[in-house]
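Co-fold these.
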Amino acid sequence: QLQLQESGPGLVKPSETLSLTCTVSGGSISSSNYYWGWIRQPPGKGLEWIGSIYYSGSTYLNSSLKSRVTISVDTSKNQFSLRLSSVTAADTAMYYCARDHGFGEQFDYWGQGTLVTVSS
Amino acid sequence: QSALTQPASVSGSPGQSITISCTGTTSDVGGYNYVSWYQQHPGKAPKLIIYDVSKRPSGVSDRFSGSKSDNTASLTISGLQAADEADYYCCSYAGSSTLLFGGGTELTVL
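Predicted complex below.
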């Protein structure tokens, strides 16, 4: 059974960089036709797609966050990562990693999510 | 790009059917058959219940169905049960390798 697990600091200071890693187990991150995505959800609000990556390293980003987002993949560790720079309180959210079976078709496996709070 | 438009809330009684709409444009919902729906219970991660407009993943009840007409996708839940009370989100491919989620709909089972 495929499992995804987010990890990283739960508290980040304003203007600093948020860094999260998603570890995939029970399957290979290098499988063809699977993309790996980050989605966030501010408290009490809806879901927002941040971006996705293919195992080759090709990235696809939400244009509204593109200037601050970096997504990378480490196939040797079966992990992919998110970096969001210059964070503000508006970036406080639950951050989920998920597998996208065919870009945009279906996020079929999700991590449990990790809450990141931006505060001094 | 703006989020897809969903009603903030819908409600129904046990056994009834309800429909949640997801309205976009010709650049997203209307332009591609890549609409998916997610169910999210409080404190839990979203769960995929419909993909490619109307397909159900293995293990998802056939009480859940999806459809699309022009720029609006719809999720119908028949035989409403208490366990269906949750938030529901649509998601669509929006061209140029981007994805859009809807604002979410809170379903209350009366």
